[in-house]
Design brief:
Number of strands: 10
Shape: elongated
Distance between the termini: 33 Å
Strand order of the largest sheet: 6-7-8-3-9-10
Helix content: 40-55%
Bound molecules: adenosine-5'-diphosphate, magnesium ion
């Protein structure tokens, strides 16, 4: 059986190598405009993360690790290149499932000029349609010329008003689509936990679910959300801390709450930015045990760290240097 065990290890690794690419960064560029000069943080940066893989990204402070993680998790959009999730663009989701809002957004985002033209064009089209309809009605039913002109002006105004009403709805719809996308795909863990101090541990973990379903859906969703929250908190060893406030917990425990919160949506990818950066060695090792346990259950993980011991837990370690990733 010992021989079987040693034979099984490479086959698991081989399985992972054969898994499909889940998250891809293709020729990503990101620059920050600092007054007249522009800071090139990422330049032609490529990355493939396979389903079920645990990838660690290392690099000096300021090398762009957090920037890259934000782009991968659709918290930000690259200046050039693309982030693809399951072959589909994350930065510009123009898929059938994203619906009409994302399609229109794809055009609008090509630039300010394009956006202005698009809005003006849409306005003109709707106003024109209303005007056309008004003229048609009057040519069918007759009436004096001044009435026709008034009707035409009225229809134009109605068209403009309709567009003005439509625009915020469009943008709201877009934002909702993006947030929903992000939620189903990514769970985030940050160095400084970002828990809400006035909420209990359980409430902190339930919060993303509450936000997702809105005021009216919450009454239906509450029980299921609480069951799930209790389950993930048990998973990270905090079953006895449900009613504590974050201030009453150690750093390691707070980070475990943050991991539970990231997991409560069953994200396809867990993105962790220096999750042990603020912890002592023992608490850090504890967090790594949890992450490795999750990876054992098939969770895809991308973790940023500057600690080589922590990075050694990953299947693959990449180094971010001069805007690009290279293997170690
Ligand atoms: P890391 O996480 O590797 O320490 P970051 O991705 O946070 O690096 O930042 C990379 C570089 O980009 C740094 O030099 C940082 O100062 C700069 N930077 C990050 N965010 C911004 C921003 N919003 N505006 C301007 N510069 C930024
Ligand atoms: Mg950082």
């Amino acid at each position: 059986s010992e021989r079987n065990a040693t034979a099984a290890a490479p086959s698991i690794a081989a399985q992972r190598d054969a898994a499909p690419v889940l998250l891809r960064g293709a020729r990503i560029a990101k620059r920050y405009q600092m007054g007249p000069s522009s800071l090139r943080v990422l330049e032609q940066c490529d990355l493939d993360v396979r389903e079920g893989e645990f990838v660690a990204i290392m690099g000096k402070s300021g090398s762009g690790k957090s920037t890259l993680l934000h782009l991968l998790g659709a918290l930000d959009v690259p200046d050039e290149g693309e982030v693809l999730f399951g072959g589909e663009s994350v930065s510009q989701p123009i898929s059938a499932s994203a619906g009409w809002a994302a399609r229109i957004d794809g055009f609008i985002r090509r630039g300010k000029l394009a956006s202005t033209l698009m809005h003006t064009g849409l306005l003109a089209a709707v106003a024109g349609l209303c005007g056309g309809l008004g003229t048609l009605l009057f040519s069918l039913f007759g009436g004096p010329a001044t009435a026709r002109v008034l009707m035409l002006i009225g229809s134009l105004c109605a068209g403009v008003a309709a567009m003005a009403l439509l625009r915020p709805t469009l943008h709201q719809q877009l934002e909702r689509t993006r947030v929903a996308y992000r939620r189903r795909r990514f769970g985030f863990v940050f160095q400084f936990y970002h828990l809400l101090p006035e909420l209990s541990v359980l409430e902190n973990v339930m919060l993303p679910r509450q936000v997702a379903c809105g005021f009216f859906g919450w009454s239906r969703e509450r029980v299921a959300a609480e069951t799930d929250a209790r389950r993930v908190l048990e998973r990270v060893g905090l079953a006895e801390r449900l009613n504590h406030k974050p201030a009453e917990l150690s750093g390691g425990e707070r980070q475990r709450v943050a991991i539970a919160r990231a997991l409560v949506h069953h994200p396809r990818v867990l993105l962790a930015d220096e999750p042990t950066g603020n912890l002592d060695a023992e608490a850090g090792a504890n967090i790594m045990r949890i992450l490795c346990g999750l990876r054992g259950e098939g969770q895809t993980i991308v973790m940023v760290t500057h600690d080589p011991t922590i990075a050694a837990n990953a299947d693959r370690v990449l180094v971010l240097e001069r805007g690009r990733l290279r293997p170690t």
